[in-house]
Amino acid sequence: MTKNELVEALQKELGLDSKAEAGRTLDAVGAVYLKALKKAAKAIKKPKKGEAAVKASVVAALPGVGNFYVGASAPRKARNPLDGSSVNVKAKRKISFKAAPSISAKL
Q: According to the model, what pLDDT value does residue 28 have?
């Protein structure tokens, strides 16, 4: 589904007068979730070398749809597939989404 299709569906579902109004509504919801995810990401400290990864925790829930999680991966060594040399991968914050059981059951 494209953003335009989503905006049209929102306009019909909410009974809004214009697509622009539905688009602003969609953008506002996205901005609220983005702020919540950024706030949670700032609170999570990236693990240093030798420390374990930070387990993801629920940051923002979309009732009936699913949950967004933010966690952090530990630094690690990886292999360059082109030449086989080892590469250091920095610690980073990760975001994930898990669909609600009710959504999974309907698919």
A: 94
pLDDT at 52: 79
Beta bridge partners of 67: 61, 98
Question: What is the distance in angstroms between the CA of the first residue and the CA of the last residue of the chain?
Answer: 16
Is residue 86's pLDDT more than 90? yes
Asked whether residue 51 falls in the same domain as residue 94, the answer is: yes
DSSP string over 9-66: HHHHHHT-S-HHHHHHHHHHHHHHHHHHHHHHHHHSPPPPTTSPPEEEEEEEEETTTE
Q: Look at the chain and report how many structural domains it folds into.
A: 2
Structural domain boundaries enclosing 28: 1-43
52 and 100 in a single domain? The answer is: yes
Considering the domain architecture, whether residues 58 and 105 belong to the same structural domain is answered as: yes
Q: What is the pLDDT of residue 83?
A: 95
Q: Tell me if the pTM is above 0.70.
A: no
* Whether residue 73 is found in the same domain as residue 92: yes
